[in-house]
């Protein structure tokens, strides 16, 4: 019993000693700690000030400036959408002038799709890779478009990998089976039968009611027959 009491007293003394050392450290470094605390407070204030007084107004301005580019995109006037009409900037102008805004990130997506349609596949990949917004529908489409560009370049392995990313970015009953099928086709073209089978099996098991599931048994049987 005495031994247990001694251990308890030792622990209490150790805690008191640690507290004492902490007090001494604080007393000795009070000025330095005050400077650090002040610097942290300034950083926090600077961040919120930047968000409210610079980034938010820039975001509103970028949205209003990009309105016409989006209109031209909807009208299939892709060159005007990309380069502007002299009064309003196109997506490339939005990227250049408002680079840190969400609108500029979205402009990368639009620009990538336009370049894909115009057959400029390297440019398309470059812009689509810069689309970083966490949008559950647009992000999978961006990854899928990168896959399409790689397919056009004959890089079927890269295409398949991006289709798979598109399928898994936001799992749903529409885009996921679509991109799984594209991934399977691309893997087949690249000679990777094993990965193609896995993609087809996922359609069969996870999305049996999807349009892509209608012919999936046929594809699986064909590959297994090989």
Question: Could you outline the blueprint of secondary structure elements for this entry?
Answer:
Blueprint lengths: L1 H27 L1 H45 L3 H6 L7 H7 L4 H16 L3 H9 L8 H15 L3 H14 L5 H16 L2 H14 L9 H10 L1
Helix pairs in contact: 2-5, 4-5, 5-6, 5-7, 6-7, 7-8, 7-9, 8-9, 9-10, 10-11
Can you put this structure into words, describing what you see?
With 226 residues, this protein is mainly α. The chain has helices at residues 2-28, 30-74, 78-83, 91-97, 102-117, 121-129, 138-152, 156-169, 175-190, 193-206, 216-225. The longest helix is centred in the N-terminal third of the chain and has 45 residues, at 30-74. The radius of gyration is 29 Å and the shape is flat.
Report the average pLDDT across residues: 84
Radius of gyration: 29 Å
Enumerate how many helices there are, as a single number. 11
CATH class category name of the largest domain: Mainly Alpha
Written as H for each helix and E for each strand, in order along the chain, the element string is: HHHHHHHHHHH
Number of domains: 2
CATH architecture annotation name of the largest domain? Alpha Horseshoe
In short:
This protein has 226 residues and is an all-alpha fold.
What descriptive keywords fit this protein?
226 residues, mainly alpha, Serine Threonine Protein Phosphatase 5, Tetratricopeptide repeat, 2 domains, 11 helices, 0% strand, flat
